[in-house]
Description:
Radius of gyration of chain A: 23 Å
Low-confidence stretches of chain C: none
Largest sheet of chain A: none
Number of helices of chain A: 10
Oligomer: heterotrimer
CATH topology of the largest domain in chain C: D-Maltodextrin-Binding Protein, domain 2
Helix content of chain C: 40-55%
Mean pLDDT of chain C: 80
Largest sheet of chain C: 6 strands, mixed
Order of helices and strands of chain C: HHHEEEHEHEEEEHEHEEHH
Low-confidence stretches of chain A: none
Shape of chain C: elongated
Strand content of chain C: 15-25%
Helix content of chain A: over 70%
Radius of gyration of chain C: 27 Å
Shape of chain A: globular
CATH architecture of the largest domain in chain C: 3-Layer(aba) Sandwich
CATH class of the largest domain in chain C: Alpha Beta
Number of helices of chain C: 9
Amino acid sequence: MRYRRIGLIVYATILVCCFCGLVIAFFSYQEPTRELGAIYLSRAPSETGAANIVSAIYLNYRLYDTLFEILIFSVAVLGVRFYLSDYREIVEKIPESQIVRTSADLFFPPIFLIGIYLTLSGHLSPGGGFSGGVVAGTALLLCAVALGANTVGKRFHEPVLRWLEWGVLLVVLSLPLLPIVVGRLPFTELLPPGTMGKVISGGSIPIYNLLIGIKVFIGTWVIIHYFMRHRGEV
Amino acid sequence: MLMIAGVIVSVILFGIGLLGMIFRRDLIIKLLSLGLVNGSVMLCLVSLGSRANGIAPIIRGPENAGYVNPLPQALVLSAIVINFAILALALVFVMLLVEHYHSTDSQRIEHEIKREREL
Amino acid sequence: MIVLLVLLSLLPVLAAFALSRRRRFTAIVGMGLFSLILSAVYLLLHAPDVAVTEAAINAALITFIYIIAIRKTGRLVVVSDEIPGLLHREGEQISGLEQEILSGFARQLGLELVIRFLPVEQIPRALQQGEADIGAGGIISEIDDSRVLKTQGYLPTALYYLSRQTKPHLKQEESAITGFFSDLREEFQAGKTQACTLDLARFVALSRSDLSPYTVRRLDGLFSYIFLIAPARERLHHQFVSYLGKLEEGGELEKLTRRYFS
């Protein structure tokens, strides 16, 4: 047994040293990324019209990777829904806590509003679809902790939720192909960049932010709902 | 300077996460260590893109230089979301495993699986 | 700059602390705190987008999902009579030798321990009907019931036969214990009991009151306390037997016995 431990420590040390070497190598070959970053910084404001350069990168220049990222998220939600789909009725009475209930009443609107704000102003200030959707999902999480996941889940009409989720995914995946109709290459911008700093600017980046926000919000709610349903209420 | 500090800390975190994954037998702690390894790589990327006296890559006024490299931040954003997706699904599997074998000990679960296979 | 270096040096310490904890809950909360500090570090490294996304996803959502995932999956229902020393109520809590054994077992299985009090003769029926998983409360190994599964003896005991001096010819079989032990104790203090067979724990509990009108005779044979398991839970039986064996090997059982029965 001791030899096994020593062997494991040696293996771990070798792995860590390899990672160190990789990082040092990457560190010394840092120039290309710095140039590329500088190119994006100089060209993004005029071409895309978005003030948030990071948004402009992952929703305009590198949109292809973001589409697959959304797909991975959707598949994860699908997996959670599939594997936790057998529902045993565990009827447990939730102890009604006044503090949690009051704070949920108090905090749900601001948190949800912050989530919507983060989603819609992704091209102007830090935020974007992913963080905005997750923050809005966290607001629903607060409600679910206070009232019970099943109670909140009954408020949503399940088929509408499912149609919305997959419909948004379909729209997001086919939106870059829309320019073919107009006669241009896919993944080109159709909308004009506009003046930087206005809410309606940045080409089609706000549209993507909104769609991703809706998708991530519904996905987060589904994950929370199925986890709480499977394991019993908090 | 900040870059080097960030990289060194991220390597240390990677080592801690790796050791946690190998030496702790509890499945939940193994998953937490996986998340830690993910976080360490993301910290390395972001700190490689930063610079001294930098500004966040959001353009407010007229063009002034000194922006931090925005490219690693875009990569890390995707990495965070994918990390969350993987962790959620992995937790589902861990939950189902634990419910079936009534233990979160990975060696115990392997032992039980081997015994079931022999029967 | 200094703040950033301080936070950066705090990160590995916190991570090592969190991942070395025995309790899973402490590890999860530690990693949630780690994500929060990591998000602050991202902010100080001039990456606000990454910071807010990391805070929202890792610190809030992932921590919550982990806490949901480690919740106890179910309950371990134990039916027992209230015996001082083995399983008794102390105000709001329940304590005793058997309670310690059972709570350690429940913690190992990740279940919540629920104890219900029943008279001792109703325990086998409750187990057979599936209302409970384990029967406890000073059950003797000689109990003859094929409906339930028995564990090995965890504590040797002795049986005493008490009878009133005026009626020494009462048959032993008629003196089996029925009803709650507290009722028996009241009857005993009132002096109404004619004869009964008691094990060591009950005898010790009853010997506080006046025993002079009774003759005490110790029965021959080796007896020990056991637990009963419901017949449908064979795997639970197997796990409990191995758990009891491990307790005995490690010497924990002796420590606990000395704490309650010194």
